[in-house]
Amino acid sequence: MKILILPDREAAVAACVDLIAQTLTATPDAVLGLATGGTMEPVYAGLLARARAGEVTLNRMTSFNLDEYVGLPPGHPQSYHTYMRERLFGPLGLDPARTHLPRGDASDPIAEAVRYDTAIVAAGGIDLQLLGIGGNGHIGFNEPSSSLASPTRVKTLTRATRAANARFFGPDETVPQFAITMGIATILRSRHAVLLATGGPKAAAVAAMAEGPLSARCPASALQMHPKATIVLDAEAAADLELRQYYETVHPQGQEVSLD
Ligand SMILES: N[C@@H]1[C@@H](O)[C@H](O)[C@@H](COP(=O)(O)O)O[C@@H]1O
């Protein structure tokens, strides 16, 4: 696990965008695993700006998103299909056949999860998997208690996660109870995992992930087993790391972050 601590959110987001852009420059037809959530909004804004400036091309990549709410059709305003379409896929006119998300409205969500896992393997696996982290240590929608060997499947969302995500829904809407999510094993098979966390509310989960025991209580701790995981943090998200003085990872602003 390589831990990069950047001075602030803006610098952490820029470092994360750099890592994605470097992957796409080296391998324009890379398979990207994409994430949603508030943390990722400035990442997609940054990627979009770079694509519009001609600095990176996204139209040859293939993508697989981590998760989708069960019951929400792709056109639902709070679906992750809509999130991705509005922030990245639509503005760049990306081919929908190359940008995949699980279908939340599938008549058989369990079969949809199996189909999705199979499609990732058929595409050659994920070159770079982008991840956020929930306040309870979840990655994707792998809530605490998720098996470290889990494939893509239907997961019940915890009350804490539904409460955290209620901010994206209207006052009269209920946050779905279930999601289809890539599993921990699916995520661990990616060739490079890049997790971005910003802000003080993520500090405890970040410390549990990086310095706590490898445990299903903190699903993100599975990344300790990943052969190539890069954790990109701002100072606030890094605040609870006990060993932070030992990480040779404080990059002065402006210095390019390397993939190795
Ligand atoms: N399923 C998503 C995760 O992929 C995301 O990483 C996490 C953090 O979200 P945020 O960035 O909004 O804090 O929660 C959501 O529930």
Automatic annotation (TrEMBL):
Output one GO MF annotation: identical protein binding
Q: Which reaction does it catalyse?
A: alpha-D-glucosamine 6-phosphate + H2O = beta-D-fructose 6-phosphate + NH4(+)
Which keywords accompany this UniProt record?
Answer: Allosteric enzyme, Carbohydrate metabolism, Hydrolase
Annotated site (Part of the allosteric site)? S146, R153, K155, T156
Q: What EC number(s) does the entry state?
A: 3.5.99.6
Q: Active-site residues?
A: D67, N136, H138, E143
**Domain Glucosamine/galactosamine-6-phosphate isomerase: start-end pairs:** 11-226
Under the heading CDD domains, the entry gives: GlcN6P_deaminase
Q: Which SUPFAM superfamilies match?
A: NagB/RpiA/CoA transferase-like
EC top class, as a word: hydrolase
What cellular component GO annotations does this protein have?
A: cytoplasm
Q: Which InterPro entries match?
A: Glc/Gal-6P_isomerase, Glucosamine6P_isomerase, Glucosamine6P_isomerase_CS, NagB/RpiA_transferase-like
Q: Name one Pfam family in it.
A: Glucosamine_iso
Q: What family is this protein classified in?
A: Belongs to the glucosamine/galactosamine-6-phosphate isomerase family. NagB subfamily.
Q: What is the recorded function of this protein according to its Swiss-Prot or TrEMBL entry?
A: Catalyzes the reversible isomerization-deamination of glucosamine 6-phosphate (GlcN6P) to form fructose 6-phosphate (Fru6P) and ammonium ion.
Q: What protein name applies here?
A: Glucosamine-6-phosphate deaminase
Q: Which organism is it from?
A: Limimaricola cinnabarinus LL-001
